[in-house]
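Q: I have 99 residues here and want to know how they pack in 3D. Can you give me a structure?
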Amino acid sequence: MHLSQAYTLLGDTRAAYRAQDDVLALTTSPSVMTRALIAMDTAACLRVDGDPGEAATMAAAVYDWLPPAYRTGLVHSRAQLLHRHLDSAPRRLLGDALA
C-alpha cells in the first residue's frame, strides 16, 4: 500500500496502478480502510492521467460510501490533496462530498 502512495505522489501512475493491484491481490480480505486508501490513490492517478472528472467521481463515491468514523485521517487528507489539484466541476463535486 505504501508503494501505491509513493508512486502516486511521484506521478508514476503506471507503477502506482501495479502497486494498487498488488495490494488487492495480496490481501485476501482487504479492510475498509485499505480499499478506501487504494481507491483514493487510483483517483489521484486518474487526475494525473488527465481525467479529473472521473477522479472526482471516484473519490467522492468512496468518501460517501465510508462510514463517518473512517472519513478522517489518511483518507480525508488524500481526498483533500486531490481536491486542491482539481478545478471547476470536479473540484465542486469532491468539495460537496468533503463538506
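Q: Anything worth noting?
A: Residues 8 and 63 are 18 Å apart (CA to CA). DSSP finds six helices and no strands in the chain.
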